[in-house]
Amino acid sequence: MKEPLLRLGRPKPPTALETLLLAAARASGEVSPYSLRQQLDLSLGTTVPALRRLSKEGLVERVAKAQSRAQKYSLTPRGTKVLERWAERAFPDVLPADTEAVLRIVGLVCVIGGDADRQRIPPFLKEAARLKERSAEEHELKAKQHFEIREREWNEYLWMSNLVNAQRLRGEAAALTEISESFGDGVPRTCRTYSAGSKEEPSVGTGDDSVKKENQPM
User: Fold this and answer.
1) Secondary structure tally for the chain: helices H, strands E
2) Model confidence pTM above 0.85
3) Phi and psi, residue 194, nearest 5°
């Protein structure tokens, strides 16, 4: 049975970035492009259009304040339901090729995911690292082919491009592997004391040697 035409144009599920903004709005009460830049190190060029899309889809709404032109948004009931549905199935069926999307998913699981999802973080990261390594090998092979046949037009550029991409992918794979090893029990060592809604500051360090973040030297 075909879906009604009106449902064919329904909005797509939010991306990892958009879900991250929804989670930030829930945690902070309200967010703005400037607060997200400070909180999550996201550029205005990233957050402004994303917040507008979320607002258009009814997942966040502008906060009206007298004598204020700041673009502040709060989570709507619909946005809360979307977050709850995301938490029920945090990991996508197809692993994102973009490393930033992988990190955003892991960050979301740390904040709003359950214990079972946190246990899945290490294999998720290791699989992402494995795919990066495989992609790096493909770029290295292409670089070698273009290096050996230099008389063709654009081969110099293609050789350089593939060589750089291979090195970048290997670096990302190594970083993802290192991160996965920090999740011994599904909780990263750098935020072992943190839980969603907790008033306690995240600790840094590991084990009994961890100290409060504010006590660390700047």
Assistant:
1) 9, 4
2) no
3) -90, 140
